[in-house]
Amino acid sequence: MKNNRRKFLKNAGMAGLGLAGTGFLNGSSLPDFESVIAPSIIEKNKNNIMTQNADISLIGQYGKWATTLANDKMPSLSFRRKEFTDLSKWHPAAEAKTRDRISIPDIGPMPVVTVKKQYTYDGLHIEELTWQLPYGRPTDAILLKPENAKGPLPGILAFHDHGGNKYFGTRKITRTGSDQHPLMKEHQTNYYSGKAWANEVAKRGYVVLVSDAFPFASRRVWMQDVPEQHREGLNDNNPEDPKNIAAYNEWAGKHEHIMAKSLFSAGTTWPGVFMAEDKIALDILSSRKDVIKDKIGCGGLSGGGMRTVFTGGLDPRIKCAVCVGFMTTWKDFVLNKSFTHTWMTYVPILPNELDFPEILGLRVPLPTLVLNDTDDDLYTVPEMNAADKILSEVYKKAGASDKYKCSFYPGEHKFDAAMQKEAFDWFDKWLK
């Protein structure tokens, strides 16, 4: 599974889980790293911590110059700048500019939601939902809450990962029966300690909504809907067959640059589409009578962590956010790691105004937890630490240091049982 994903990333130049990279910025600092991570882990990861040559980067000798364009100076709307002393005055300007850069499309009001099926499994009440947006095929979603729950509960908007796997969406982080697809059983074993984390947090006493993201699973691009010359001989027959899933995912990876260019040409961005569709999901969750509307959180791993950055940063209805396996700086993307990441990440021009962590920092002083893996090949450790320093400074300046926390765990890109426990405890602390 992991080897297949690494091959996929190498061929497609996009993100889901990990691909080893080289070339780190010389002189990158490691603030308080030794106090956070055991020395044995530092030694094990020294190739991901130490710099080799300042002239080596993903774009060669252009890398050092490129970082001077935005990343070597304080972004113009960073709350860390001396001129910003009033949070209430800074925030509207920073949020407005971010929304302008992301260019969130207007996709209309909350659609009619259809309950396709209801049942109980694993101590949970489960609803299979669907809704139709003004474009594309219907969105499928899974809602979970404790069986026999009485009264309204806090809500969690759970974001599934990217994983280089667009055939699956909600099934990556849920389990709704004993007939789980073998690929999803393997996926959860590799990245979630064998757990369906949306189920696990629901058992804690939450109403959890997981929807297929654009363009995953029910929202994926179908072969019949693209010109025949771009299908590479594929079709939509026997979709659940593992061989067909692998072929589709390889095609979908190579199709990402086409989708991104088309969205840019349409006047929006991939994060903008995510924001629009995640807003609808949040509308649906918050409109339910069994949900406490002012106690809703969100979180997810990898691509789900990225969506947490944008939705958690920009929608104040998210009272508690947990970003897992998606935190670094724009500098890290420029020099080292853009090749491991999906086109879904990037917002043109925004790095001039905010560093990547500061998008999530727009939610200050609302509670925010960031969870990182020390062997995560998607990022360099110095820049993960730099991102932590940025968010720490933002929260400290806002007088809300107690509302921010960042933890490092040993291991590769994952959201394992130990990390899940910290995440769920964080939700309990701030939403219950």
Description of the molecule:
- The chain has 432 residues and is of the alpha/beta class.
- The chain has a domain of 251 residues: 3-Layer(aba) Sandwich (Rossmann fold), CATH 3.40.50.
- The chain contains 15 helices and 9 strands.
- The protein has a 9-stranded mixed sheet, with helices on both faces.
- Helix 11 links the parallel strand 6 and strand 7.
- It starts with a helix and ends with a helix.
- The N terminus is likely disordered.
Q: What is the first-to-last residue Cα distance? A: 37 Å
CATH class of the domain at 2-105 and 285-431: Alpha Beta
Which CATH architecture of the domain at 2-105 and 285-431 would you pick?
3-Layer(aba) Sandwich
Rounded mean pLDDT is 89
What kind of sheet is the major sheet? 9 strands, mixed
Summing up helix and strand content along with how strands pair, one would put the structural category as alpha/beta
Low-pLDDT residue spans:
1-52
Helix content: 25-40%
Overall number of strands: 9
CATH fold call of the domain at 2-105 and 285-431: Rossmann fold
> Compute the gyration radius: what is it?
21 Å
Number of helices: 15
Instruction: Characterize the overall form.
Output: globular
